[in-house]
Design goal:
CATH class of one domain: Alpha Beta
Helix content: 25-40%
Structural class: alpha+beta
Distance between the termini: 33 Å
Radius of gyration: 21 Å
Number of helices: 12
Largest sheet: 8 strands, mixed
Bound molecules: flavin-adenine dinucleotide
Mean pLDDT: 96
Number of strands: 20
CATH architecture of one domain: 3-Layer(bba) Sandwich
Shape: globular
Length: about 400
């Protein structure tokens, strides 16, 4: 079996890259370990930056997002009994974000791929990467008990944090940077109307809380929990009571609760692998970096990596400029580290880090300072809507 670009992983990174390359006449095969149903059952991100929105449209997978997604022009930070709105649109010269669930993004990309006729192989087991430092890389895998080899020009490792691509790189060739936070997010999805039309990020003595949403009747709420907390310890009633305590009183009073349709605890981690290119292997999205979800950056960073790799591969195939591929890591990492910084900063600003009263006062002073000045609000807004993509000349 042969292709031009072998893509490992059919999450948002792999599917988006595959679709963009297909539209440029570049052949791809996507290998995914799980079934399509399993991939679609994962409840994850919900806030898309303008850059990700534009890229989905360019990939021909933006029509439903444009119909059903919700454009948000601002969000609120609640702390010390105050509520401060960050007016994204006015602070960034008209930029906004789109609230549209990752599951729906994935579904739209899967449908676009199906329509394009390009090959995706789900439940591809024992995927292994070979010879990516040479001119003729290969990916081997097992499908329905049959061992198959896929020859290719390049491999895109889009297989997430726990995937095989990053693990295939020799230890001496890669450097990992990591911070694991001493808390996680307990998330609940419910068929209830969102408590407010925009997101609320709450800093509270009892811990962080977030009110988010996927649609007019689908809400996603989170509370900060410890590493020791287990989902089984959190009945729906306990969750709703705790969430109410962490929200401003009038918001808590109007919260509509209902049975959870999904409940899970996600650990919080910052992680970056450097570099992101190893011969003819490119790491893309969560395979190369993780952010705590506080800044809504995970999926968006995956999209900006895809943007960079897509344009570099286009130059390589159409203009014979394969030399430009060497710039992949450098271009991606410049933006990634800034998004890592913002996600880390939002996390340390909004979560209960310890019982240290001095630290808590510092957080409140930071929140007061940043939300109280035009420069501070602008800094938050321009990071939240997403820093610009670097153009590939
Ligand atoms: P993934 O979505 O992880 O996709 C990788 C794919 O590769 C998967 O389908 C996997 O099955 C497949 N795969 C793995 N190993 C192999 C293998 N060996 N062979 C073949 N295929 C393989 N981001 C936000 O911006 N906001 C949020 O609120 C948010 N919440 C999150 C909540 C959770 C619980 C998690 C885990 C992540 C969250 N994220 C959030 C991050 C966001 O979901 C990711 O950044 C995004 O999914 C990255 O996309 P990806 O395609 O790079 O990786």
């Amino acid at each position: 079996m042969k292709t031009q670009v072998a893509i490992v992983g059919a999450g948002p990174s792999g599917l988006l890259l595959g679709q963009l390359l297909h539209l440029q006449g570049i052949d791809t095969v996507i290998l995914e370990a799980k079934s399509p149903e399993y991939v679609l059952s994962r409840i994850r991100a919900g806030v898309l930056e303008q850059g990700a929105v534009d890229l989905l449209r360019e990939a021909g997978a933006g029509a439903r997002m444009d119909r059903e997604g919700h454009v948000h022009e601002g969000f609120t930070i609640a702390f010390a009994g105050r509520r401060e709105r960050i007016d994204l649109k006015s602070l960034t010269n008209g930029k906004t974000v789109m609230v549209y669930g990752q599951t729906e993004v994935t579904r739209d990309l899967m449908n676009a791929r199906k329509e394009s006729g390009a090959l995706s192989i789900y439940e591809a087991h024992d995927v292994q990467l070979h010879d990516f430092y040479g001119d003729k890389p290969r990916v081997s895998f097992v499908k329905d008990g049959e061992a198959i080899e896929l020859e290719c020009d390049y491999i895109a490792g889009c297989d997430g944090f726990h995937g095989i691509s990053r693990k295939s790189v020799p230890e001496s060739a890669i450097r990992n940077f990591e911070r694991v936070y001493p808390f996680g997010w307990l998330g609940v999805l419910s068929h209830t109307p969102p408590v407010t039309p925009e997101l609320i990020y709450a800093n509270h003595d009892r811990g962080f809380a977030l009110c988010s949403m996927r649609s007019d009747n689908l809400s996603r709420y989170y509370v900060q929990v410890t590493h020791e907390d287990k989902v089984e310890d959190w009945s729906d009633e306990r969750f709703w009571n705790e969430l109410r305590k962490r929200l401003p009183e009038d918001v808590a009073a109007s919260l509509v609760t209902g049975p959870s349709i999904e409940k899970s605890i996600a650990p919080l981690r910052s992680f970056v692998a450097e570099p992101m290119k190893f011969g003819r292997l490119f790491l893309v999205g969560d395979a190369a970096h993780i952010v705590p979800p506080t800044g809504a950056k995970g999926l968006n960073l995956a999209a900006s990596d895809v943007y960079t790799l897509y344009h570099l591969l286009r130059k390589a195939y159409h203009d014979g400029r394969s030399d430009l591929l060497d710039r992949y890591s450098e271009i991606c990492l410049r933006r990634i580290w800034k998004a890592e910084r913002f996600s880390w900063w939002m996390t340390t600003l909004l979560h209960k880090l310890s019982d240290d009263p001095f630290g808590q006062r510092m957080q409140l002073a930071d929140l007061d300072y940043f939300t109280g000045s035009l420069a501070g609000r602008t800094t938050i807004a321009e990071n939240y809507v997403g820093l610009p993509y670097e153009r590939i000349e």
